[in-house]
């Protein structure tokens, strides 16, 4: 892997963008209210062409990128997906498709497999057909996901499932895991909703209570023990929402450290959520990936530790968590350089405590939510 010279912004050796995320499109047949896409995605420019994407892959690979995730929106909407996968594999990337399963067919799985795709992850909204389809905004979604999860496994891929959990489905975690075991899943990510994009807009309707969370973690642990006793290969990964933590997550393993996100119109971001920050991020149509990664203002803005105000600057944990998430700091405090309010040392931590309190007080029935679709995105843009 290539090494780099001194980065003029921080005077430290810049590591390569190991993990490239290609958000191929914001188009999606579903309308999940917890989607992490930007709420103003409808203003995004024209999608990169096949040739432009392949050029981005070549440049990123030359910089040392090793893993390439295809995501969206729904990446299967792109009819050139197999061609892009093949180009990525030919360049030596480990390739991963992150999909809702909608638009997948046995023929397309074969095509993707022949193109060399290494890994497929299918997301579900719930283990109950009715709740799943309500959240997805599609009457056929659940049946299609089940069929495609089975088809992916039948073609020799490990079955990797992702369930986003929140206050409307987390109490059914037992049934979710049961379904995964019935499906013969190999890896299951039980990811409690993180609050970006549409999920942030719907936070009050999605944040589980602490009691719900503790129940779900307990049930997951019981299942782990049961599966281990049976030598069952299924691995359960439980991701807690950082709203119930006292220290922030090391978001993206540090800004501009190893993660490079290219959005559908070619805007390059250090994370999927950064477009909302008051920073002009570079575009691959105008700059080389090398310039973007090593030299651009946006990617250098929060690298290293010099930018940090207190309490992060003098904190002995800053090298573990980098002050948390810049996007969350911006969304909750209006200033991305503030400590992530998840941290109990932040003077804004009360915002997190208030959100927890709100989750405790709100009734657990189905609240009204704003569903992610282009029409709603346009309404939000118009304000
Ligand atoms: Fe942007 Fe955390 S999501 S830095």
Automatic annotation (TrEMBL):
<comment type="subunit">
    <text>Interacts with PqqD. The interaction is necessary for activity of PqqE.</text>
</comment>
<dbReference type="InterPro" id="IPR058240">
    <property type="entry name" value="rSAM_sf"/>
</dbReference>
<dbReference type="GO" id="GO:0051539">
    <property type="term" value="F:4 iron, 4 sulfur cluster binding"/>
</dbReference>
<protein>
    <recommendedName>
        <fullName>PqqA peptide cyclase</fullName>
        <ecNumber>1.21.98.4</ecNumber>
    </recommendedName>
</protein>
<dbReference type="GO" id="GO:0009975">
    <property type="term" value="F:cyclase activity"/>
</dbReference>
<dbReference type="Pfam" id="PF13186">
    <property type="entry name" value="SPASM"/>
</dbReference>
<keyword id="KW-0411">Iron-sulfur</keyword>
<dbReference type="InterPro" id="IPR000385">
    <property type="entry name" value="MoaA_NifB_PqqE_Fe-S-bd_CS"/>
</dbReference>
<dbReference type="InterPro" id="IPR007197">
    <property type="entry name" value="rSAM"/>
</dbReference>
<dbReference type="GO" id="GO:0032324">
    <property type="term" value="P:molybdopterin cofactor biosynthetic process"/>
</dbReference>
<feature type="binding site">
    <location>
        <position position="35"/>
    </location>
    <ligand>
        <name>[4Fe-4S] cluster</name>
    </ligand>
</feature>
<keyword id="KW-0479">Metal-binding</keyword>
<dbReference type="InterPro" id="IPR050377">
    <property type="entry name" value="Radical_SAM_PqqE_MftC-like"/>
</dbReference>
<keyword id="KW-0884">PQQ biosynthesis</keyword>
<feature type="binding site">
    <location>
        <position position="28"/>
    </location>
    <ligand>
        <name>[4Fe-4S] cluster</name>
    </ligand>
</feature>
<keyword id="KW-0560">Oxidoreductase</keyword>
<feature type="binding site">
    <location>
        <position position="32"/>
    </location>
    <ligand>
        <name>[4Fe-4S] cluster</name>
    </ligand>
</feature>
<dbReference type="Pfam" id="PF04055">
    <property type="entry name" value="Radical_SAM"/>
</dbReference>
<dbReference type="InterPro" id="IPR017200">
    <property type="entry name" value="PqqE-like"/>
</dbReference>
<comment type="similarity">
    <text>Belongs to the radical SAM superfamily. PqqE family.</text>
</comment>
<dbReference type="GO" id="GO:0016491">
    <property type="term" value="F:oxidoreductase activity"/>
</dbReference>
<comment type="function">
    <text>Catalyzes the cross-linking of a glutamate residue and a tyrosine residue in the PqqA protein as part of the biosynthesis of pyrroloquinoline quinone (PQQ).</text>
</comment>
<comment type="pathway">
    <text>Cofactor biosynthesis; pyrroloquinoline quinone biosynthesis.</text>
</comment>
<feature type="domain" description="Radical SAM core">
    <location>
        <begin position="14"/>
        <end position="230"/>
    </location>
</feature>
<dbReference type="InterPro" id="IPR006638">
    <property type="entry name" value="Elp3/MiaA/NifB-like_rSAM"/>
</dbReference>
<keyword id="KW-0408">Iron</keyword>
<dbReference type="InterPro" id="IPR011843">
    <property type="entry name" value="PQQ_synth_PqqE_bac"/>
</dbReference>
<dbReference type="GO" id="GO:0005506">
    <property type="term" value="F:iron ion binding"/>
</dbReference>
<keyword id="KW-0004">4Fe-4S</keyword>
<dbReference type="InterPro" id="IPR023885">
    <property type="entry name" value="4Fe4S-binding_SPASM_dom"/>
</dbReference>
<keyword id="KW-0949">S-adenosyl-L-methionine</keyword>
<dbReference type="GO" id="GO:1904047">
    <property type="term" value="F:S-adenosyl-L-methionine binding"/>
</dbReference>
<dbReference type="InterPro" id="IPR013785">
    <property type="entry name" value="Aldolase_TIM"/>
</dbReference>
<dbReference type="GO" id="GO:0018189">
    <property type="term" value="P:pyrroloquinoline quinone biosynthetic process"/>
</dbReference>
